[in-house]
Design a protein that fits this description.
Number of helices: 4
Low-confidence stretches: 153-175, 177-193
Strand content: 5-15%
Strand order of the largest sheet: 1-4-5
Radius of gyration: 23 Å
Largest sheet: 3 strands, parallel
Mean pLDDT: 75
């Protein structure tokens, strides 16, 4: 939805820097306590060069093309390391020209530890996006109401009555047929969820 509205969140790297890894543990030889092992990461000194190379060899060209086509309104850098590696000027240069797009302030990465939480940033980001690229009034598949159980539903007229159908799956089961948490029903078969 954001991309369709001309809003791009920029991470810059063409590959995942932090690989998903299972947590491993080790027992202390001194205290016999169990401790989490530090997950292996690429060397920190390679992060900035990898971000710059990703930008220069790929990401910059994609951003420039989208901006020149008029399909970019906002470029939002995500993560202070991205801002430090690429610089605001480098991002501005990529969209300069016929484009009316602009680069915003950098927002913290979703995994960043932020005193007070990420909430104020979400609110600021939502307001920024709605101002620069307001939603059109056409209903999309993403603009579906969510019922009290957190299931996306839509009302479908049928024989002068309305039923609510769970549209997060396409198995024909009505939302009323699905047990709710408050019914204290244990769901043993995942295919019913």
């Amino acid at each position: 939805d954001l991309r369709d509205r001309g809003v791009w969140l920029l991470d810059a790297s063409v590959f995942g820097w932090y690989m998903s890894q299972p947590q491993e543990y080790k027992r202390s030889a001194v205290s016999n306590e169990v401790h989490r092992k530090v997950k292996s990461r690429p060397p920190k000194e390679l992060k900035t060069p990898s971000l710059v190379l990703s930008w220069e060899l790929f990401t910059k060209h994609v951003i420039r093309e989208v901006a020149e086509e008029g399909n970019l309104k906002l470029l939002i850098p995500i993560g202070m390391e991205v801002e430090a590696a690429l610089t605001h000027e480098r991002m501005e240069d990529a969209i300069r020209g016929r484009s009316k797009a602009r680069v915003t302030d950098t927002f913290p990465a979703p995994n960043a530890w932020i005193p007070g939480g990420y909430g104020p940033f979400h609110a600021k980001l939502a307001a920024l996006v709605d101002e620069a690229a307001p939603r059109n009034n056409a209903r999309t598949k993403h603009d579906v109401p969510i019922n009290e159980t957190g299931v996306k539903t839509e009302e479908i007229p049928r024989d002068d009555a309305c039923i609510k159908r769970d549209i997060s799956r396409d198995d024909g089961i009505k939302a009323d047929d699905v047990p709710r948490i408050e019914d204290s029903v244990k769901i043993e078969n995942e295919s019913m969820v």
